[in-house]
């Protein structure tokens, strides 16, 4: 019995320790304990402390230990007082926060002050201090989560620069089709010299104080875990809800229709720049502000916060790069490649250490894959132009869909000149323009991109020449070529393409469509005007020639009012040029022969001819009745 009693204090201590561990486990199991349960746990701890202190009174305490115990009890009381308080320590004010951290310091001091050889009463206080420290750490962990959630801030999209894109062009297996001109606003990430505040700067010192306290007390891992969890959730919320980036699997991307994928690729490019150039640098800055004093902890926390979101972005890009390339994807691929190429330095700066090397390598690998896809798509674009054959002549001799598509698409490409020059630098291509130098020659005119653009248009010209041969009417063939070459020149002259095609190319192609104008006038009007040339014919022959001229003019009118010259300026020029030749010749003929022919044999007056010529090339569904224009 005496032997059992001698062991009782030790057994009792074990019971108290076990109780403390149970309470600690209950607290750690859920940070959102109900108020009643929290009070119950606090009461239990108070009772346990009373039992120990009663036992302590049996032993005479020295003055130094009594002082330590008193300071500890005051500190413990202040810590436990927060158990029933649902507000944050931050909300209570700076003074209360200082008192809480001072109490935590007192408890930590008690724990640090004990030696391995401590007697039983010291061990009891040590156990109580351990429990109090656990309670304080759980409180700080909850405080950390509450403060970070309540005071988080998003990147202000108004700080992003805005640029415009040109046309949106689509392609299908049957023909090239161009949509109407439209401006697409794309947000570009601005410089991140000044990081955005993702958490209210006023609460950062408080969060840093929590970090300092938890790391000092050996709870750094708990701090890091809570901090990573809250900040990772904030990043995901920003990307998937604020920026509306969808979570898509590789299968989703591979099976998606182009119309849907086009928008997703555009969104990805925008989101990638915002995340890597603004959000992640700001996140890294926040980590450094709070954890910069703890060696590599700041870096590892930043990588853990970033990796899931970053990998989801990379996975989308990887899936897109796996799709078969099609010409309509060129601009989107260029945009995605350019975005990755531009941010590689940013990514290297974000993840310079071994901890984040897997993200750095993944970004570089994606950029390489997108470069290969973009180059392949660019070459496929040219092949698609070359293989676009027609079996029937284009109605009305207007601007072919292929011409519209190609030229409108080329207008988009100067936006990506740096990317294209880099991608095309080592690809040889035939170029009809000989390189020359001089003050007025821009270097861009003979860049890799310029050579390839001219080569593409040369392929387009060959295709148009083949399509022109399908016209049975030679005059309409020249109208078709005139329309399409004029359209190409106007697109080059009126856009950034001018800096790549050069003035010599423009001059050559202006001359080419002007030759088609001349060829049209010769093939259409030479035979008609030959009927009213000067001669000493008899009255009957003159009347016959006047009648034949009217019939020939009727045929031209009926055909060519259905032809199309879409450009109003070109159409007016053609009206004027034709009118000068035809009306002048007809007026001379009538001036010399009207009296001999007789008024009733003259089908049209000069004014009639002049007015009717204005109807040509208007692409009318049916010609105006010629009876209304005849002299009666």
From TrEMBL:
Pfam families: Exo70_C, Exo70_N. Keywords: Exocytosis, Protein transport, Transport. GO terms for molecular function: phosphatidylinositol-4,5-bisphosphate binding. The keyword Kinase does not apply. Residues 267-615 form the Exocyst complex subunit Exo70 C-terminal domain. One of its GO terms (biological process) is exocytosis. It comes from the Eukaryota. The keyword Protein transport applies. GO terms for cellular component: exocyst. InterPro entries: Cullin_repeat-like_dom_sf, Exo70, Exo70_C. Belongs to the EXO70 family. Component of the exocyst complex. This is Exocyst subunit Exo70 family protein. It comes from Microthlaspi erraticum. The lineage of its organism: Eukaryota, Viridiplantae, Streptophyta, Embryophyta, Tracheophyta.
């Amino acid at each position: 019995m005496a032997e059992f009693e001698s062991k009782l204090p030790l057994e009792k201590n074990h019971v108290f320790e076990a109780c403390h561990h149970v309470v600690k486990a209950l607290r750690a199991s859920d940070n959102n304990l109900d108020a009643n349960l929290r009070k119950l746990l606090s009461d239990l701890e108070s009772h346990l402390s009373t039992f120990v202190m009663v036992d302590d009174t049996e032993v005479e305490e020295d003055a130094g230990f009594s002082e330590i115990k008193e300071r500890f009890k005051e500190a413990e009381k202040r810590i436990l007082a927060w158990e029933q308080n649902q507000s944050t320590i931050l909300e209570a004010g700076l003074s209360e926060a200082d008192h809480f951290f001072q109490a935590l310091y007192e408890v930590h001091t008690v724990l640090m002050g004990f030696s391995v050889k401590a007697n039983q009463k010291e061990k009891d206080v040590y156990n109580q201090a351990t429990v109090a420290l656990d309670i304080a750490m759980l409180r700080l962990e909850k405080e950390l989560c509450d403060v970070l959630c309540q005071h988080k801030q998003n990147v202000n999209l108004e700080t992003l620069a805005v640029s415009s894109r040109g046309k949106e062009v689509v392609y299908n297996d049957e023909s090239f089709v161009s949509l109407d001109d439209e401006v697409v606003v794309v947000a570009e990430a601005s410089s991140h010299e000044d990081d955005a505040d993702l958490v209210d700067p006023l609460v950062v010192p408080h969060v840093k104080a929590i970090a300092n306290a938890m790391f000092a007390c050996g709870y750094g891992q708990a701090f890091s875990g809570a901090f990573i969890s809250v900040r990772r959730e904030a990043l995901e919320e920003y990307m998937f809800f604020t920026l509306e980036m969808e979570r898509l699997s590789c299968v989703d991307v591979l099976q998606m229709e182009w119309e849907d994928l086009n928008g997703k690729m555009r969104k990805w490019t925008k989101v990638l720049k915002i995340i890597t150039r603004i959000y992640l640098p700001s996140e890294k800055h926040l980590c450094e502000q709070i954890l910069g004093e703890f060696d590599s902890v700041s870096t590892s926390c930043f990588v853990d916060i970033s990796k899931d979101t970053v990998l989801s972005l990379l996975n989308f890009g990887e899936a897109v790069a796996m799709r078969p390339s099609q010409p309509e994807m060129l601009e989107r691929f260029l945009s995605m490649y350019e975005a990755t190429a531009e941010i590689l330095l940013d990514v290297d700066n974000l993840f310079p250490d071994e901890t984040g090397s897997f993200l750095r390598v993944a970004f570089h690998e994606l950029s390489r894959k997108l470069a290969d896809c973009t180059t392949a798509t660019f070459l496929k674009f040219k092949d698609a132009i070359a293989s676009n054959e027609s079996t029937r002549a284009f109605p009305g001799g207007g601007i072919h869909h292929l011409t519209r598509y190609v030229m409108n698409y080329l207008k988009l490409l100067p936006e990506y000149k740096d990317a294209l020059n880099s991608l095309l630098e080592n690809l040889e291509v035939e170029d009809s323009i000989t390189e020359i130098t001089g003050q007025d020659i821009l270097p861009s005119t003979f860049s890799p991109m310029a050579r390839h653009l001219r080569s593409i248009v040369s392929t387009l010209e060959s295709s148009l020449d083949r399509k022109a041969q399908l016209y049975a009417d030679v005059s309409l063939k020249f109208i078709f070529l005139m329309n399409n070459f004029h359209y190409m020149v106007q697109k080059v002259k009126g856009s950034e393409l001018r800096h790549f095609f050069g003035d010599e190319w423009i001059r050559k192609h202006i001359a080419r469509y002007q030759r088609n104008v001349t060829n049209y006038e010769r093939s259409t009007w030479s035979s008609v005007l030959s009927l009213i040339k000067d001669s000493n014919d008899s009255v009957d022959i003159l009347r016959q020639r006047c009648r034949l001229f009217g019939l020939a003019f009727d045929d031209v009118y009926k055909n060519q009012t259905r032809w199309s010259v879409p450009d109003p300026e070109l159409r007016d020029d053609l009206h004027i040029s034709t009118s000068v030749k035809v009306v002048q010749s007809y007026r001379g003929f009538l001036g010399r022969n009207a009296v001999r022919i007789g008024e009733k044999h003259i089908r049209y007056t000069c004014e009639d001819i002049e007015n009717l010529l204005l109807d040509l090339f208007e692409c009318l569904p049916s010609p105006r009745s010629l009876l209304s224009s005849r002299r009666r």
